[in-house]
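Q: How do we represent a protein-ligand complex in a form that can be generated token by token?
A: Start from the inputs.
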Amino acid sequence: MTLKAETIQAIRTAAHHHGGAKAAMLEALKLVQAAEGWVSDAHLAEAAATLGVTTAELDSLATFYSHIFRSPVGEMVILLCDGLSCYLNGADDVRDAVQQKLGIRFGETTPDGKFTLLNVCCIGGCDRAPAALLGPDRKLVGPLSADQLDQLIEDAR
Amino acid sequence: MTATPLTGRARPDRSPHSFAEWQRLGGYDALRRALKELSPDDLVSLVEASGLRGRGGAGFLTGTKWKLMRKAAAAAGEGPRYLCVNGDEMEPGSFKDRLLLEALPHQLIEGAMLAAYAIGATEVILLVRDAYRAGAAALNRAIVEIESAGLLGSNILGSGFSLTMRVHGSAGRYIVGEETALISAIEGDRPVPRARPPYPAQSGLWGRPTIVNNVETLSCVPLIVQHGADWFRGLSRTEEGGTKLYGVSGRVNRPMLIEAPMGTTARELIERCGGIRDGRRLRAFQPGGGATAFLEQAELDVPMDFGHLKKAGSALGTGALIVLDETSCPVASIARHARFYARESCGLCTPCRDGLPWVSKLLDQLEAGQGTAATLELLQMHVDLASPSGRSFCDLMTGAMTPVRSGLERFADVFAAHLAGRCPVGRA
Ligand SMILES: Cc1cc2nc3c(=O)[nH]c(=O)nc-3n(C[C@H](O)[C@H](O)[C@H](O)COP(=O)(O)O)c2cc1C
Ligand code: SF4
Ligand code: FES
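Then emit the structure tokens for the protein with iron/sulfur cluster bound:
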């Protein structure tokens, strides 16, 4: 599987916009991920070749940033906040309920490939705690109850 | 003039204004005036006189920072200078810059343009955390708008001042917010902090003089230019100018963002949030985010500014007031923070890379009632390793150990009970 022509073009544009190939490496990874859902070895190599950087250079960024996924993820990634303000507002209960509902733990994807559940640090939604980010647009949702997250998952199914 | 000049124009649904709408509200008046009437030196002096302190955490006087940079830049010789806008906002409990990015992008952009004019920068790079996609999109739209209005590019409004501006989206690492790591991130390196000296003002982005300023800091600048330094000072209750965006969260009835005079007390802020949840009693609060020391009942009336909170043994940090009530266990709370800092260590310095996961594990064990005789001693050892600050490449490690240090001091009884296998508090 090779990258889509639009993705390649977008990477080239990004290199121009960021003032150079190296400065555009993270943006390139984000573009690959936006198009493909995650960053496979083959796509990483192709993006590196497009930019004219080594795969090692590009992978050194890919493995550093937590929101770049180097293994397959579900159609909807749920990033559940485990920061203090969310904890103080019952985030552990929401976590337990969603893990039970989906039958997966943090870092796992449902067998049907629909959902991936990840824990993340404070997402700047402490006024809406407990909070989560949903989907590729990182939509902020909260304050979440176990029931509400349940509903959001049903809607996404 | 409203009591909330910084956020008063934000719409309740946070939808950003178009350029035309913003201009009707007085947007870019300050820029037009400054380019016509003020020299860069005048602008630096004005901001210095306003008493504006950096809102990213350290509280350094913004005008003075710019002045020092201009000096360093003169020594660095001909070539570009840069302004980096720090929109990483990942300190636990902080959610103030999100509003300014999402709802008031033109205010921030005007502030960044004024700062760039003051320090002689030719390019502004706005770094925005990945969780703030709406904020990044608002900025991108606003930049396109002012480009077509002729407010960006070369010889802006015939002033001879030229500037370009772009957004750099991050991808979820706390360390990117540290200013030298932020510079590395923009260059495309692994974002790990750099040794100082040289300071960014001397040699920053691509080896050139660079200023890194926080989103809230820069958003204040158009107001200062428009209404004057005295007016800005008058907004505050203390020596430190302006209003402050306080983010109140945790165990209050209505967690929220509050713009209030600099020096407002925690008591007033908590009251404005409807008090402690369900009428319970306060146990403690962190006044400025995860890396600030705990305060208690006795400190509720300390004016929340950089100077007063420092004197009280804590810090204003990001102005993120996290409230613990009597049902919140300090050990469990500190353990949450410790997991975060351990996960976010960039790995450069050994006591941070290897120490913080150890601290986190010790606290998890303690929380579960499985501490040993050595637990508290080991925690204290790491506290001592992390202070004074300056022993590591950046302040993440010292910041991470701050709640641990202050927890050990203030909640010795709770730590002791956990050591005996019992949480005296119960779950939050
Ligand atoms: C680990 C770490 C993370 C930081 N994160 C941020 C951040 O997200 N946003 C920010 O403005 N400053 C952050 N800072 C502070 C910056 O290094 C820098 O002091 C600040 O951006 C300067 O802007 P100011 O002078 O306007 O406050 C962080 C510092 C450290 C040590
Ligand atoms: S203190 Fe920690 S985060 Fe900061 S440079 Fe050292 S290892 Fe990296
Ligand atoms: S602690 Fe969860 S959003 Fe801040």
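Residues 86 and 130 of chain A are 4 Å apart (CA to CA). The beta strands of chain A are 76-81, 108-109, 115-120, 132-134, 139-141.
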